[in-house]
UniProtKB/TrEMBL annotation:
Annotated protein name in UniProt: HTH lysR-type domain-containing protein
SUPFAM superfamilies in the record: Periplasmic binding protein-like II, Winged helix' DNA-binding domain
Domain HTH lysR-type: 4-61
Pfam families documented for this protein: HTH_1, LysR_substrate
Family, as annotated: Belongs to the LysR transcriptional regulatory family.
Domain of life, per lineage: Bacteria
Gene3D superfamilies reported for this sequence: 3.40.190.290, Winged helix-like DNA-binding domain superfamily/Winged helix DNA-binding domain (1.10.10.10)
Keyword check for Translocase: no
Keyword Zinc: no
Keywords of this entry: DNA-binding, Transcription, Transcription regulation
Length: 291
């Protein structure tokens, strides 16, 4: 019976992926000799040479190529086993970070904060605000546990998601702007006038319409440029609502082909979702709708 262990498989996979025993040792915080011995013991256990050591850097043998695929499967199954075990008895996190899209109004935001304050009074909560690409990156890197974001770009396959209400994209200008005087605004009309747009937008082709643009690094800067009548712009409805309500800006009546909305989602990194706080937040958005 084989006596292969997970440490051996991890060393084998890392050495194969990095092409170096030394690199594998650094990743596993082991010495080069320890990793070399671990892999040698694995070769003895399976009675196969996994690496050709005749050159400076070890390369996989034919047997190594075949067994590498199986080793990766075993490690993936072990990770899944551990994840399932954690979900059966989720632990309560002591710290938790929420990443919020700077131009998206999170639905049930008050309910989330009330839930965390009441149910997890000792939780150290951190709120960070970023553009949509930054929210996704924060979750992927493990800097945030959950993100609320507009989906201005495809999300990575290692992220889980729950669909949230889309954000309507409005075309706005100051009341004195020439576009505000038109009963119906066409694409040609928009192209004739200067546009303010957020420079961090991922879909620049979708948001940049005019050939004459002013780039703005924040929604506040864009709203300022638009309010002075120098530009027209596009913004999601919740963040432009106060200016429209006060009359500082007006919603342009654009032709139907120009109307659009941006999908939104709650996202998390698959494999990092087993904590009680994590489960409680996601449960808010997965409750069945009343009949």
């Amino acid at each position: 019976m084989l006596t292969v262990n997970l440490l051996q498989l991890q060393a084998f996979v890392l050495a194969a992926e990095t092409g170096s025993f030394s690199a594998a040792a650094r990743k596993m915080k082991k010495t080069h000799s320890a990793i070399s011995m671990t892999i040698s013991n694995l070769e003895l256990d399976v009675n196969q040479a996994l690496f050709d050591r005749s050159s400076r850097n070890p390369t996989l043998t034919a047997a190594g190529e075949v067994l590498l695929k199986e080793a990766k499967l075993v490690l993936a199954q072990c990770e899944n086993f551990e994840r399932l075990a954690n979900e059966l008895d989720p632990k309560e996190e002591t710290e938790f970070t929420l990443a919020l899209d700077s131009v998206y109004s999170v639905p049930m935001e008050k309910e989330i904060l009330t839930l965390l304050a009441d149910k997890f009074p000792k939780l150290k909560l951190k709120l960070i605000e970023k553009p949509s690409s930054g929210v996704i990156a924060s979750v992927v890197k493990g800097e945030a546990n959950i993100g609320f974001t507009l989906l201005e770009q495809p999300i990575f396959s290692n992220l889980g998601s729950i669909a949230l209400p889309s954000a309507e994209l409005l075309y706005v200008a100051s009341p004195e702007h020439p576009l505000a005087k038109l009963e119906k605004v066409t694409l040609v009309d928009l192209q004739r006038h200067r546009q303010a747009y957020l420079s961090h937008d991922v879909n620049v082709k979708d948001t940049s319409i005019s050939a004459n643009v002013w780039e703005c690094e924040s929604i506040s800067a864009a709203k300022t440029a638009i309010a002075y009548g120098t530009c027209w712009g596009m913004a999601v409805e919740p963040f432009i609502r106060p200016q429209i309500t006060s009359g500082q800006l007006v919603k342009l009546n654009v032709e139907s082909s120009l109307k659009k909305s941006i999908p939104a989602a709650l996202i998390w990194k698959i494999g990092d979702e087993s904590g009680r706080v994590h489960n409680a937040i996601r449960a808010l958005y997965t409750k069945p709708e009343p009949n």
